Amino acid sequence: SNGNNTSNNSSSLGIPTLEIRLPSCYPLGETCPEPILHNVMMKPQLKQQFLKELRDMYEIEMDVGIMWGERCREELLSGDNTAGVNNEEEEHNNGD
């Protein structure tokens, strides 16, 4: 049954997470790693726009973990499109 899968993740629920999928040639090739955001409250098109911005930042031999992590932190702290993400005590009962 699929019903139980969500409860296993409850410990990490709500913590904004940046996942970086590295291409097999990394860091030697020119292929950009794939940034994926989890648990970020963002309108889908803003999120796609932001992920595109991260990919556009990429240069060969760049440390994407640090660069993208910092950029995500800025974006989340700006708080425009991430209501309540930084405040873990806030209840998310707006029913999205």
Q: Describe it for me?
A:
This protein has 96 residues and is of the alpha+beta class. Helices cover 34% and strands 10% of the residues. It is built from three helices and two strands; from the N terminus they run αββαα. It has helices spanning 5-8, 44-57, 64-78, and strands at residues 17-21, 34-38. Strands 1-2 form a two-stranded antiparallel sheet. The chain is elongated. Residues 82-91 have low confidence and may be disordered.
Set down the secondary structure blueprint:
Elements: H1 5-8, E1 17-21, E2 34-38, H2 44-57, H3 64-78
Antiparallel strand pairs: 1-2
Briefly characterize the structure.
By secondary structure, this protein is an alpha+beta fold. The chain contains three helices and two strands; from the N terminus they run H-E-E-H-H.
Q: What's the rounded overall pLDDT mean?
A: 78
If strands are numbered along the chain, what order do they take across the biggest sheet?
1-2
Beta-strand proportion: 5-15%
Poorly predicted ranges? 82-91
- How much helical structure, as a percent, in the residues? 25-40%
Apparent shape: elongated
The value of Rg in angstroms is 15 Å
What is the H/E order? HEEHH
How many alpha or pi helices?
3
Question: What descriptors fit this protein?
Answer:
alpha+beta, 3 helices, 2 strands
